[in-house]
Structure formats: structure tokens, C-alpha cells
């Protein structure tokens, strides 16, 4: 039997037994959702040749981006606050899940603003990252006239340095707060996931399904996603809540010895990725096309909002909320991504040793998933030595694939 045929056969056998929850969810979905989801499930697994296409040489580096995840032990702040005669609904502090949860979180923030201000017609949104843009677009869809105030717009917001992976429970809150959030997180993740199903497949490849391979010499935990955070943590880093991220198709374990990878264990995980450059640009374009206004300005104190014409605001300033709203509970968690020149032929991701490769269309992303020293670290200067080290590791590993 040819190697590829063998993979396909064993993969189908494993997949058919390993997916009751996912299949049940498909069965529960409305006919319209079923039609949207079934055709986009990629086949899995592949052989090693497709992975070997990844070119992780230094000469391919197009940029190195460091930024901070805005983490709060108690989870994101999505709540209303009165500021003099104005209402501010906060929508910040999403840790490592801001892109993934943006639509669902912003939906909750908008609902709060509308509930507190019956007949709301105009809205000010502070911030133009994923949370600000989705807040603004949802408000427009609800018939509101919206102005975004922000000191920077994409591509100059820190979210542009993110990995771009569906990671809705990444550094969302600590374990102590897990139970408080479970229902609300689930609603947020569901709303966002459904929204992404409407976007996956649109021209421009803004959001896509892809297969990522996790390779290891030690067995994987029973459930362990492609971009799972490392087990190594900083001393002051908490245990994070782990919600049931079962929106994805089942993972497929390849039989030891029956795959071309240089590790004993290999697992295929299917997930969603955001091609952040075109995706953010499309969000901005959609906002402007719907008549949205943008005012570039930096606020140094919340009272500056009192001088604006709008009476109701959504505050989506991300890590900026720490200084602007004096919220000392916002903790910076540094992260760095290395962006390589695009390789359209690469459609699979790879996670092995310490590195992760995301096959993003706007440039392959390579990231060290095992770094320490990031918790409570606000340094957003790129570390080129680290960038080169992780690329070297990835290139050496890929060269070993048979
Ligand atoms: C390395 C790394 C990888 C990540 N990978 C992922 C991933 O794969 N998937 C995922 O879902 N999430 C990921 N994240 C997390 C995600 O990037 C964040 O949760 C997200 O950036 C938060 O977005 P935001 O809109 O709240 O903030 P931002 O994108 O930072 O936007 C804040 C906006 O507010 C404006 N602003 C701030 N302060 C002021 C002020 N004082 N006055 C005026 N305007 C102000 C800014 O100019 C900007 O427009 C990652 C984060 C990092 C660091």
C-alpha cells in the first residue's frame, strides 16, 4: 500500500471513531450552518513532503513583532461604568484570545450599551484593534452611527503581531475564575466561531481552515490543541482556565512508525487561522464603507471623553486601558512572532520542540511557544537573537523530515 494511501486509510478510521462531540454539534446545527461547515473540513493527514516546503531560513525574515497580551486574572473587563454624564462600556483585557473572541465579546459589550441607553443612536468606540473594530461593526449592523477614536489604526496596533490562531481560551482568565466565566465564555466563543464560518471562504482568504501537525517524542495529553500553551510557566504565572474548546474537528493521532516525521508521536489538528493583515484591513474598509468615522487621537485621562459629542462609548483600548483607566489588574504578557515572506504553497502548520509555524498567507509566522520571562513583562521591543534562535530550530527540525 502506498504511504499516502495508508495515511488516508488510518486517518479515516481514527477520525470516524474519535469525533462524537463534533459530529453531534454538526447534527445540532441548523441546516444553514451544516451547509456552511461541512465542505470546509480539510482532509487530514498529509505526508511529510508538504511540511518540508516550509522555508525557515534567516533570509526569509520579513519582520519581527513583539507585543503584550492584556491579561487579567479575573478575565476581560466587559462591564458598564458611568463617567459623569457619559456611559462607558469596557471591552478589554482578553489575554491571548482577543482575535478569537472579538465578535462574541463585542456583542456582549454592545448589548450592555444598548440596554443601558434605550434608543441609542450614536456610539463612540475607543480603540481600533480587533475589539474596537468588531464593536464598531456590530453597532453599525444594529443601525447605530459610529465614530472610532484611536491613537493608532491597523496595521499600527499591537494586535497585528499576534499569531492568528483560533485560541479562544488562551490566557483568558485564571483557573479560580473559570467557573464564573464558563457560560459567558461559551456564548462569546460560539458567537465568534459562527461569525468566522461566515468569513472563511470569502475572497481574500481572510479566515481559513488549516491542518497543523504536532510532533513529539513523548505522548500527547488526551486533548491537546495545535497551539496549546507550554507547560513551562513563569513563577508568578497562574494556572489558566481551560474551557471546552470543542469547536474544532477531532484530532487525529498517526500511528508511531507509520508516519514520515522524525518523532515517535504525530498528531494532526485542524483549526482556524486569521490572515491578520487582509482581515484587519477588510474590517476597517467595511467600517468606513458603512459610513463610519475615524478620529485619530490619544487620550491621557478618561475625563477627556466628557468633551466628545457621543454620550455612550465602548472602551476597547486593550493593554492601553491599564494606563488610561488606571487598571492595575491588567498584566502584560509579552510575546513575539517572526514573520517570514509568504509561501502560498505552504498550507500546513507545524508544532514541534519549542516552535510553532502558522501557514499564514500574509507571511508564515514562527513563534517560540516555550519562552519564559514573559509574564508581567511589558517590553515590546523585538528580540532578534531569540528570533534567529527559534528560526534555526525550526529549519533544523524541518531538514530532518524524511
Ligand atoms: C504574541 C501574541 C500572539 C497572539 N496570538 C493570538 C492568536 O493567535 N489568537 C488570538 O485570538 N489572540 C492572540 N493574541 C492576543 C490578541 O492579540 C489580544 O488579545 C488582542 O490584541 C487584544 O486586542 P484589542 O483590540 O483589545 O487591543 P489592541 O489591538 O492593542 O488595540 C487597542 C486600540 O486602542 C488604542 N488605544 C490604546 N490606548 C489608547 C489611548 N490612550 N488613547 C487612544 N487610543 C488608545 C490603540 O491605538 C488601538 O487602536 C496574541 C497576542 C500576542 C502578544
Automatic annotation (TrEMBL):
UniProt xrefs under Gene3D superfamilies: D-Amino Acid Oxidase, subunit A, domain 2 (3.30.9.10), NAD(P)-binding Rossmann-like Domain (3.40.50.720)
Organism, as annotated: Pseudomonas capeferrum
Enzyme class, UniProt record, top EC level: oxidoreductase
Name the UniProt record assigns to this protein: D-amino-acid oxidase
Lineage start: Bacteria, Pseudomonadati, Pseudomonadota, Gammaproteobacteria, Pseudomonadales
Documented EC number(s): 1.4.3.3
Record keywords: FAD, Flavoprotein, Oxidoreductase, Signal
InterPro entries: DAO
The UniProt record lists the keyword Glycosyltransferase: no
Residues of the signal peptide: 1-18
Cofactor names: FAD
Amino acid at each position: 500500500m502506498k504511504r499516502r494511501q495508508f495515511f488516508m486509510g488510518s486517518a479515516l478510521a481514527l477520525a470516524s471513531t474519535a469525533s462524537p462531540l463534533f459530529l453531534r454539534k454538526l447534527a445540532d446545527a441548523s441546516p444553514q450552518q451544516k451547509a456552511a461547515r461541512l465542505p470546509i473540513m480539510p482532509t487530514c493527514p498529509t505526508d511529510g513532503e508538504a511540511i518540508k516546503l516550509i522555508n525557515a531560513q534567516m533570509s526569509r525574515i520579513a519582520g519581527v513583532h513583539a507585543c503584550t497580551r492584556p491579561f487579567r486574572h479575573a478575565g476581560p473587563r466587559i462591564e458598564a461604568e458611568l463617567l459623569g454624564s457619559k456611559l462607558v462600556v469596557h471591552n478589554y483585557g482578553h489575554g491571548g484570545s482577543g482575535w478569537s473572541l472579538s465578535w462574541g465579546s463585542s456583542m456582549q459589550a454592545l448589548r450592555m450599551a444598548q440596554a443601558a441607553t434605550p434608543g441609542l443612536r450614536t456610539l463612540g468606540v475607543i480603540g481600533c484593534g480587533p475589539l474596537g473594530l468588531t464593536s464598531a461593526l456590530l453597532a453599525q449592523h444594529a443601525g447605530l452611527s459610529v465614530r472610532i477614536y484611536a491613537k493608532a489604526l491597523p496595521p499600527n496596533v499591537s494586535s497585528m503581531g499576534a499569531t492568528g490562531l483560533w485560541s479562544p481560551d488562551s490566557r483568558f482568565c485564571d483557573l479560580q475564575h473559570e467557573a464564573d466565566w464558563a457560560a459567558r465564555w461559551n456564548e462569546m466563543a460560539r458567537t465568534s466561531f459562527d461569525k468566522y464560518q461566515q468569513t472563511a471562504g470569502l475572497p481574500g482568504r481572510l479566515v481559513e481552515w488549516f491542518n497543523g501537525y504536532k510532533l513529539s517524542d513523548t505522548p500527547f495529553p488526551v486533548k491537546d490543541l495545535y497551539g496549546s500553551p507550554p507547560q513551562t510557566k513563569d513563577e508568578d504565572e497562574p494556572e489558566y482556565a481551560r474551557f471546552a474548546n470543542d469547536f474544532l474537528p477531532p484530532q487525529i493521532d498517526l500511528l508511531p512508525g507509520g508516519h514520515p516525521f522524525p518523532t515517535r508521536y504525530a498528531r494532526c489538528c485542524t483549526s482556524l487561522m486569521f490572515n491578520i493583515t487582509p482581515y484587519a484591513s477588510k474590517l476597517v474598509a467595511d467600517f468606513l464603507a458603512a459610513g463610519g468615522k475615524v478620529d485619530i487621537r490619544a487620550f491621557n485621562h478618561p475625563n477627556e471623553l466628557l468633551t466628545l459629542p457621543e454620550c455612550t462609548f465602548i472602551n476597547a483600548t486593550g493593554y492601553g486601558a491599564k494606563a488610561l483607566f488606571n487598571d492595575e489588574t491588567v498584566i502584560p504578557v509579552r510575546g513575539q512572532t517572526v514573520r517570514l515572506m509568504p509561501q502560498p504553497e505552504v498550507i500546513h502548520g507545524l508544532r514541534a520542540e519549542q516552535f510553532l509555524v502558522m501557514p499564514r498567507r500574509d507571511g508564515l509566522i514562527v513563534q517560540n511557544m516555550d519562552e519564559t520571562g514573559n509574564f508581567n513583562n511589558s517590553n515590546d521591543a523585538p528580540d532578534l537573537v531569540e528570533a534567529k534562535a527559534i528560526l534555526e530550530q525550526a529549519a533544523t527540525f524541518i531538514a530532518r523530515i524524511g
